[in-house]
Amino acid sequence: MKQGRGVTCDFSTQGVYFETDLSLSVGEPLKFVIPMEHSDLGPSFRIRCQGEVVRVEPTVGKIGVAVVVRSYSFEGIDEREQA
């Protein structure tokens, strides 16, 4: 299993685009976590995602990766606050 770090550039419930040093391929399944340190939902939390790489492109000194999100869950948010 590959492990690495990236910087999120854009995300929604359908997908995420990030830059990384990790070499990934189109069609590759991917599990990742997005830490949410500054949000209107209160204390910091994390979004745990599973998806598939749909685009890989070179950027300045990094690799840009677009991933379609197939499933996600929240960690660190009280269940009552999610409703």
Q: Structural class, judged by helices and strands?
A: mainly beta
Helix-strand string: EEEEEH
Q: Which percent range fits the helix content?
A: under 10%
Total helices: the number is 1
Q: Given the C-alpha coordinates, what overall shape results? A: globular
Number of strands: 5
Q: Mean of residue pLDDT?
A: 86
Sheet of most strands: 5 strands, antiparallel
- Rg, please? 14 Å
| Largest sheet strand order | 1-2-5-4-3
Instruction: Assess the beta-strand content as a share of residues.
Output: over 45%
Distance between the termini: 34 Å
The low-confidence runs, each spanning 5 or more residues with pLDDT under 50, are: 79-83
* Number of structural units classed as domains: 1
Reconstruct the topology from this structure.
Layout: E1 6-11, E2 15-20, E3 29-36, E4 45-59, E5 62-75, H1 79-82
Antiparallel strand pairs: 1-2, 2-5, 3-4, 4-5
Structure explained in plain terms:
- The chain has one helix at residues 79-82, and strands spanning 6-11, 15-20, 29-36, 45-59, 62-75.
- By secondary structure, the chain is mainly β.
- The chain has one domain.
- It has a five-stranded antiparallel β-sheet, with no helix packed on it.
- The longest helix is centred in the C-terminal third of the chain and has 4 residues, at 79-82.
- Mean pLDDT is 86; it is low at 79-83.
